Amino acid sequence: MSFRRRLPVFTALLVFSAAASFAKSGENQEPDPIYRFRSYLRIKTAHPNPDYAAAVNHLASYAATIPALRTRTLYLTSPEKPLLLVTWPGSDPSLPAILLNSHLDSVPAEPSKWTHDPFGGHVSEDDGKIFGRGAQDDKSIGMQYLEAIRNLIADSDYAPARTVHVSYVPDEEIGGSDGMGEFARSEEFGKLNVGFVLDEFRVFYADRSPWNLVIRAVGLPGHGSTMHDHSAVENLMKSVEVIMKFRENSFDLVKAGLAASSEVVSVNPVFLKAGMIMSEAVGGFVMNVQPSEAEAGFDIRMPPMADPEVMRKRIADEWAPSWRNMSYQITEKGPLRDASGRPLMTATDDTNPWWSLFEGGVASAGGKLGKPEILPSTTDARFVRQLGIPCLGFSPMKNTPILLHDHDEFLKEDVYLEGIRVYQHIIRWLSADYGQGRTAEKEGPICNYSLLGG
Ligand SMILES: *[C@@H]1O[C@H](CO)[C@@H](O)[C@H](O)[C@H]1NC(C)=O
Ligand SMILES: *[C@@H]1O[C@H](CO)[C@@H](O)[C@H](O)[C@H]1NC(C)=O
After folding, report:
1. CATH number of the domain that 236 lies in?
2. N or C, which end of the chain has less CB nearby within 10 Å?
3. Number of domains in the chain
4. For residue 85, which of 99, 67, 73 has the smallest C-alpha distance?
5. Is residue 368's pLDDT more than 90?
């Protein structure tokens, strides 16, 4: 009873319509979608001073040219942080809506390290590479959503049963709390009745939750010449050894191919701090005193199947035991469980009808999905998964080296245009009415949190 078998209808239809709309209108004229994408790349939305107003203006102006779309700008935290919401109303408002999300901001770029101006919207004549900060992360998908909707309306007169919302949120690259975080908590978001969300990147069904761990040791101070037990540095180093052994075990699983690196708990030391500072002394440190305090910091990433209780206990009992005169502080940057206590992950099998529709849409566009992954870091997706709403991270970037946050970030013209076509299929599959009132959520549970890869 999969949706794929039942819904082969759209395939032929869409292939032709997509090809037609990208025909070049003149010899030296680039297709409009490329022009619009490059214009978006030229808007400097990189931190620390993202020009959100210009980006919102660019997107809203284009959305205004597409009949049937409504736009709204929300200011959930401050006038400097707008959130653009574009809505394509469905014919059946009782159905849960889908939300296509992208972020307005990008990380900074160092122009001197780039071959082309990161904010110039440069296209290479020979290979069609479009360079720009945000070309992959994630101005491409933001424009592709709108282009796909435009094509569905212009080329096939398609009208969705389910409402499609497209959101452009600020601040994803700096944690998202004033962006998607605030949006997900807002009354507006509740009113949208969102059933399913697509966000950025390959195919990701979960994020890892960052924990910052700082362990501190105290111990007997003393002259640098005496050997005594339980100095602060000795106590700290015992803990560091235990932690590094844990790290080695996780890493061995990955090296042996038994787990993806994002499926294990990663632990990496990020700072070590001890010693008495005195500027005249060697290296700035006093050399003949053993300090009475020492500290170390670790970046920990918790995959959704990890048990936070077990981890907290391990830290308290083994990594920073009080009997060794250790103390610790854990800063959990986000929960590992949703509002109902389920792991923060979206099922990627037939138990999740949204998954089946998503996969069906990609297949009908002639695409093939990679193995769904856990994102090693975090995106805005976590804010909606926390509400118990299924969310997949996705970017249609075929045969493209991943250059997120890197120098010379680019996307090729043909890959960009192909991505628009893929979204046309996905949006259509997700938003259609399949007759006799059949839609995704009436077929079964919207989300099944079976522990994939657990
Ligand atoms: C912990 O501190 C107490 C009090 O200073 C000391 O007696 C004890 O030896 C210390 N233990 C360790 C393992 O450092
Ligand atoms: C979720 O999936 C599991 C495993 O496939 C299945 O046993 C369970 O019944 C499903 N839950 C629901 C609510 O359908």
Report:
1. 3.30.70.360
2. N
3. 2
4. 73
5. no
- In a shared domain, residues 226 and 119: no
Residue 448 domain flag: no
How many CB atoms are closer than 10 A to CB 17? 17
- In a shared domain, residues 155 and 44: yes
Same domain, yes or no: 54 and 168: yes
Output the CA 324–ligand 1 centroid distance in Å: 7
Q: Is any ligand 2 atom within 6 A of the Cβ of residue 111? A: no
325 shares a domain with 276: yes
Query: What pLDDT shows up at residue 434?
Result: 63
Q: Is 407 annotated as a binding residue?
A: no
Label residue 37 by pLDDT band (50, 70, 90).
very high
Give tens-digit pLDDT for 60-118: 999 999 989 999 999 999 999 999 999 999 998 888 999 999 999 999 999 999 999 99
The ligand with the least distance to the CA atom of 234 is 1
Q: Is 172 a catalytic residue?
A: yes
Closest ligand relative to 448 C-alpha: 2
247 CA to middle of ligand 1, Å? Answer: 27
Which pLDDT value is given to residue 70? 97
- Give 237's contacts (C-beta < 8 A, 6+ positions apart): none
Query: Is 302's pLDDT higher than 50?
Result: yes
Q: Residue 148's domain spans which residues?
A: 3-207+343-443
**Quick check: is 323 in a domain?**
yes
Q: 450 in ligand 2 pocket by Cβ < 6 Å? A: yes
- 41 and 146 housed in the same domain: yes
Buried b (16+ CB within 10 A) or exposed e, 126-154: eebbbbbbbbbbbbbbbbbbbbbbbbbbe
pLDDT of residue 333: 87
157 is catalytic: no
Is 173 annotated to bind ligand? yes
405 annotated binding-site participant: yes
SS (H, E, C) 152-184: HHHHHCCCCCCCEEEEEECCHHHCCHHHHHHHH
**CA of 320 relative to ligand 1 center, distance in Å:** 14
CA 323 to ligand 1: nearest atom: 13
